UniProtKB/TrEMBL annotation:
High-level lineage: Bacteria, Bacillati, Cyanobacteriota, Cyanophyceae, Coleofasciculales
Keyword terms: Isomerase
GO MF term (any one): aldehyde dehydrogenase (NAD+) activity
Annotated Gene Ontology cellular component terms: cytoplasm
Organism whose genome encodes this protein: Coleofasciculus chthonoplastes PCC 7420
Pfam families: Epimerase (PF01370)
InterPro entries registered for this protein in UniProt: Epimerase_deHydtase, NAD(P)-bd_dom_sf, NAD(P)-dependent_oxidoreduct
Entry protein name: 3-beta hydroxysteroid dehydrogenase/isomerase family
Sequence intervals crossing the membrane: none
């Protein structure tokens, strides 16, 4: 098969490229001229350069392609450029869908997020759940929800598109939580906020496998939640502590964390700086809880991920060899 991966140089995209190449597929990667290509250094991927909203470049990249995997996204919480995030996540997705429809790709797999369900208030939900949160927790929440709505519209029009909805994506080269784990393994993470926060976890390679299974077996218009399970941040650090002997970080006082977010947020905006805490980040830590059930992907796609504990143990093992 010949496959196109948008955002091929990113965390999820690069692991997907490698998984496709290991299968013997021909892979085209859609990246920006300014993209850091280090993650693709050992790959044979053919690169096409362009902005995600550049339909001509997308058409060039999709010519002769069987599968399209749309993983490109502006992913960030806190202080973000909301207009740019909308351009990339919403209008970029629209462009990918329009070009895929025009050239007649056999299957498009869209990498969404369980965040489209909004705050489920701790209720475990599946793909049939209808979002009840009427507002949005931030620009990322809003733009990914809008993008999913557009994907659903194109599916209703007959585009063979399948949506994959991953929970928290983990890996040794994870750019988001990876640095936190590295700090923990060095013994430098003494304090942490939000130990009760529930985090869904899926290994990035299991996510890549799920996306390939979705291309092979996923029914057009369907959504598949991708999560190996969830646990609280405190439980996660307890598992890591049992593996390593490193003490679990002490819980930071909630009022102090909220105060820090309220203080650092305007300072960050003034200085064009991404602070470690902001109002949106504090909101995600204390006020929003999304829990999901990935039974459908296991049953319909035959997806069989490693467990949460296996995922964490493997990441720790790799990080230790790299340190």
């Amino acid at each position: 098969m010949k496959a196109l991966v948008t955002g091929a140089n990113g965390f999820t995209g690069s692991h997907l490229v490698k998984a496709l190449e290991q299968r013997g597929d021909t892979v085209v990667g859609f990246v920006r001229k300014s993209s850091n290509l280090q993650r693709l250094s050992d790959c044979q991927v053919e690169l096409v350069y362009g902005d995600i909203s550049d339909r001509d470049a997308l058409k060039t990249a999709m010519t002769g392609v069987d599968w399209v995997f749309h993983t490109a996204a502006y992913v960030e919480l806190g202080l973000v450029d909301a207009k740019e995030m909308e351009r990339v996540n919403v209008e970029g997705t629209r462009a990918v869908l329009e070009v895929a429809q025009a050239v007649g790709v056999a299957k498009l797999v869209y990498c969404s997020t369980i965040g489209v369900f909004g705050d489920t208030k701790g209720q475990v939900v599946n793909e049939t759940f209808q979002r009840q949160q009427t507002d949005f927790s931030g620009a990322y929440d809003s733009t990914k929800y809008q993008a999913q709505q557009i994907v659903d519209q194109f599916a209703a029009q007959g585009l063979p598109v399948v949506s994959i909805l991953p929970s928290g994506i983990f890996g040794a080269d994870d750019p988001h939580f990876g640095p936190v784990l590295k700090q923990f393994l060095k013994g430098g993470l003494k304090v942490w906020a939000g130990g009760d926060r529930i985090t869904g976890i899926v290994h990035v390679d299991d996510l890549a496998n799920a996306m390939i299974l979705a291309a092979q077996k996923g029914q057009p218009g369907e959504k598949y939640i991708i999560s190996a399970g969830d646990l609280s941040t405190r439980e996660m650090f307890t598992l890591l502590s049992q593996d390593t002997g490193i003490p679990v970080p002490v819980e930071a006082p909630k009022p102090l964390v909220r105060l820090a977010g309220n203080i650092l947020d305007p300072i960050g905006r003034l200085l064009n700086w991404q602070p470690p805490l902001s109002r949106e980040r504090v909101h995600y830590v204390y006020d929003r809880c999304v829990r999901v059930d990935a039974t459908k992907a296991r049953q319909d796609l035959g997806w069989n991920p490693r467990s949460v504990s296996q995922t964490l143990s493997e990441i720790v093992r790799i990080m230790k060899t790299q340190s």
